[in-house]
Amino acid sequence: SGEPNLQDMIRQLGESLTSVKHEQEYMSVRDRIHRSINESTNSRVVWWSFFEAVVLVTMTIGQIYYLKRFFEVRRVV
Hints:
- Helix content is 84%, strand content 0%.
- The chain has one helix at residues 6-70.
- The longest helix is centred in the middle third of the chain and has 65 residues, at 6-70.
- The mean pLDDT is 94.
- Residues 5-72 form the GOLD domain.
């Protein structure tokens, strides 16, 4: 008869399980890599935002200082 016997079915099931296990391992490694990339990118964004804030505050202070000096009344002695 053309029906697969029990041993063939068990072997095919074992091969399928091995394939699923390899796929899970691959996905786990891929997940770790992507998580690392995301954390690195997030860290860079945070530091860049901090740098931009420092530059913005520095420029604001510089402009205030410059405008105060610009509109200062100068007395000729």
